[in-house]
Amino acid sequence: MKNNRRNFIKNTALLGIAGTAIPYFGFAATAANELESKELSTRPKVLFFDVNETLLDLTAMKRSVGNILGGRSELLPLWFTTMLQYSLVSTVGRQYNDFGVIGAAALQMVAANNGIVITENEAKEAILVPIRSLPAHPEVKASLQQLKDAGYKLVSFTNSSNKGVKTQFENAGLLDYFEERLSIEDIGKFKPHADAYDWAARKMGVKPSECLLVAAHGWDIAGALWAGWRGAFISRPGAQLYPLAPKPEISESDLELVTKKLISLK
Q1: Residues 141-171 pLDDT 10s
Q2: Cα separation, 141 vs 174, whole angstroms
Q3: For residues 168 and 161, is the Cβ–Cβ distance under 8 A?
Q4: Are 173 and 144 in contact (CB under 8 A)?
Q5: What is the pLDDT of residue 229?
Q6: 166, 177, 186, 191: most buried by Cβ count inside 10 Å?
Q7: Where does residue 205 fall: left (phi above 0), alpha (psi -120 to 50 degrees), or beta otherwise?
Q8: How far apart are CA 210 and CA 57, in angstroms?
């Protein structure tokens, strides 16, 4: 009888504690969600833009690479993923080579695995000649101007070299749209390494949560979000978000549609 009474008192006390805790935890979760929602509805302080494929149309370079691979255009995705793979191998191994140089090496690897013989110079020429004069996607210039007119600070942020992106922007007519051009060449670590995004945020004097990356690569968006940035994904043909990464707040098929959503933020 005494044991039953003791257990009743104990259980009643536990229920009382739970009853007071559950509303509190529920309130905390709601407050966190409201804070996140508020943050996502406000403007980031800096818009960072990936360059190749995001802003510039890679069709000419893909054609050049396809030609040197004997017209085997089906090997293009393998070449690009191999280039990305070995840029990260270099980063993990604390090494650095120009992205174009890694691209040429990756092209030689893909060619060799498919019975195609190309020299180092041929591989470099197939990539570096066309990549310097890529045109901007049709909607890019008008969209960038709208973002500038809306008061946004625009910064390019690329795995390409400083000299390479300057040449690209000169030839594509994009130089005047950006306040800064950031290249991972200055840190020696390729995106999507978290250190690259941390470095870019420090360079611009802002917190990670005040940065938003616009990119047409799922791996780049994933890296930015994991580093505490916000993201806007452009789903160019063949581009996909990484299913195991958080979803960016904006996902549209071109920069014009992304721009409309960014301008609507207050």
Answers
A1: 999 999 999 999 999 999 999 999 999 999 9
A2: 7
A3: no
A4: no
A5: 98
A6: 191
A7: left
A8: 28
**pTM of the model as a whole:** 0.85
**Rounded to 5 degrees, what are φ and ψ at 9?**
-65, -40
Select from 48, 50, 45, 47 the least CA-distant residue to 210: 45
Which residues have C-beta within 8 Å of that of residue 119, sequence separation ≥ 6?
none
**192 burial level (CB within 10 Å; 0-12, 13-18, 19+):** buried
Q: Which two tokens stand for residue 85?
A: 């793979």
What is the predicted pLDDT for the residue at 39?
Answer: 59
- Count of C-beta atoms within a 10 Å radius of residue 102: 24
Residues 6 or more apart from 193 whose CB is under 8 A from it?
88, 91, 223
- Count of CB atoms within 10 A of residue 97's CB? 15
Helix (H/G/I), strand (E/B), else coil: 205:
coil
Distances from the Cα of 87 to the Cα of 29, 40, 101, 181, 237, angstroms? 40, 32, 10, 20, 23
Please measure the distance between the N-terminal and C-terminal CA atoms of the chain and give it in whole angstroms. Answer: 66
CA 74 to chain centre: 24
Pairing of strands 46-49, 211-215: parallel
Backbone angles phi, psi at 150, to 5 degrees: -85, 0
Q: Determine whether 41 is exposed, middle or buried from the number of CB atoms within 10 Å of its CB (0-12, 13-18, 19+).
A: exposed
